[in-house]
Amino acid sequence: MRKTQSILKQESEYILQTYGRPDFVLERGNGVYLFDLDGNRYLDFVSGLAVNAFGYGDYDILKAMEKQAAQLMHCSNLYHTVPSTRLAKLLVENSFADRVFFCNSGTESWEASLKFCRKWGSTRFSEPKYEFISMNNSFHGRTYGSISTTGQPKYHRGFEPLLPGVSFADFNDLSSVEELVTDRTCAILVEPIQAEGGIHVATDEFLQGLRSLCDDRELLLVFDEIQVGMGRTGSLWAYQQYGVEPDIMTLAKALGGGLPIGVSLLRQKVADAVEAGDHAATFGANPVVTAVALTVLKKLLADGFLESVTERAAHLHAGLHKLQERWSEEIVEIRGRGLIAGTVMKNRPAAEYIAAFRERDILAAPCGPDVVRFLPPLVMEKDQIDEAVDVFDEILRQG
Ligand SMILES: Cc1ncc(COP(=O)(O)O)c(C=O)c1O
């Protein structure tokens, strides 16, 4: 208790207060559990906001990290290294992409992708194309290009002026996108599942329509799979469930197995517009991070793994739907796909449910004011899912 209090006090004194955090201090993790300084154990339905796909202390990930750290921890992108090259090859072999750019976070991969779109738009046409159409309610990160293309005013306030040349259409409304296309548009930006925006799943017609629109008008289609890629939906990439491929896609979060990574995947036609010196990142393609990411990707691709995610996800959604039937006055809707699920609450703010879960040793995260989000490690067992659903039932019963 004393150490917890001391850390909380120092945190409030020394760390910029950009986060609202509950008053416990996490010390370690094991499997799908986190432990705080006072020895309390929490079942984790946050997984580092979609990072810890294999939970905590995964043997293969630790081994890859240890081995590579001992061998070569960092070297500049002035030189070739083995792990980043192998990771790039495996990413290309298992996606739409022809080329890979490595950086260190989601927002950085989004910034890189915006630059690649503009470079393509400025070199491909006699009159440069540089405008973006993004979606209302989207989320793409916190740096300037990212907030400028994020369709939620709360992330803009106080930070204007933003990047010019961005307009916003309505998610899942193809005609609203069509209306915004001009001779200057270079790309359409979309999350196949809007995660931070409240867990809204794109319809097949919407993504397929966007692809046709991009083909007809010669625009790039850019998918942000930073949160919902890497097996979260039960396929390696969410787009695989739509029969639609993008021209650029961003990855981050779970791919790094707990270490910071960002990736921009590109089709060759975009890569052709990018020259040496156009973009760079000192820590991008770091050997330790990419060795771990290679291990993560191999584990995601291992026989039967994605099928097991689909089964666990079906179990989670069935449990939540049953709960909704029982508590239809409280739970308005269940959203999501695979192991990203949200319950839309009617009468009380999501934050109150999150606090009630925490009192019962389960960690979940809100997603906007009214959505309780469940984002477990992909290795969460069915009986652990049942435990969370039962606890939710108890919270609702106790009002
Ligand atoms: C869809 C999406 N894009 C971009 C980001 C930004 O990623 P990062 O926090 O690694 O910069 C996030 C983070 O939550 C995200 O969910």
Shape: globular
Structural class: alpha/beta
- Listing every helix as H and every strand as E from the N terminus to the C terminus, the arrangement reads HEEEHHHEHEHEHEEEHEEEHHHEEHEEEH
Strand line-up across the major sheet? 4-12-11-10-7-5-6
Instruction: Give the N-to-C terminal Cα separation.
Output: 30 Å
CATH top level label of the largest domain = Alpha Beta
Q: What is the number of E strands?
A: 17
Strand-residue proportion: 15-25%
What's the CATH H-level homologous superfamily of the largest domain?
Answer: Type I PLP-dependent aspartate aminotransferase-like (Major domain)
Fraction of residues in helix: 25-40%
Mean pLDDT comes to: 98
- CATH topology group of the largest domain: Aspartate Aminotransferase, domain 2
Instruction: Tell me the number of structural domains.
Output: 2
Helix tally equals 13
Largest sheet: 7 strands, mixed
CA-based gyration radius: 21 Å
What compounds are bound to the protein? pyridoxal-5'-phosphate
Gist?
This protein is an alpha/beta fold and 399 residues long.
Structure description:
Helix content is 38%, strand content 18%. The model has no long low-confidence stretch (mean pLDDT 98). It has helices at 2-14, 47-50, 59-71, 82-93, 106-124, 144-148, 174-178, 204-217, 268-271, 287-301, 305-326, 350-359, 382-397; strands at 26-30, 33-36, 41-44, 99-103, 131-135, 166-169, 185-190, 193-194, 200-201, 220-224, 248-251, 262-266, 331-337, 340-345, 362-363, 365-366, 371-374. Helix 3 (59-71) packs antiparallel against helix 10 and helix 4 (82-93) runs parallel beside helix 10. It folds into two domains: 2-58 and 304-397, Aspartate Aminotransferase, domain 1 (Alpha-Beta Complex); 72-301, Type I PLP-dependent aspartate aminotransferase-like (Major domain) (Aspartate Aminotransferase, domain 2, 3-Layer(aba) Sandwich). It has 13 helices and 17 strands. The chain has a seven-stranded mixed β-sheet, with helices on both faces. The protein has a four-stranded mixed β-sheet with strand order 1-2-3-15. The chain has a four-stranded antiparallel β-sheet with strand order 13-14-17-16, with helices on one face. By secondary structure, the chain is of the alpha/beta class. The structure holds pyridoxal-5'-phosphate. Pyridoxal-5'-phosphate is lined by residues 49, 105-107, 110, 139-141, 191, 195-196, 224, 226-227, 252.
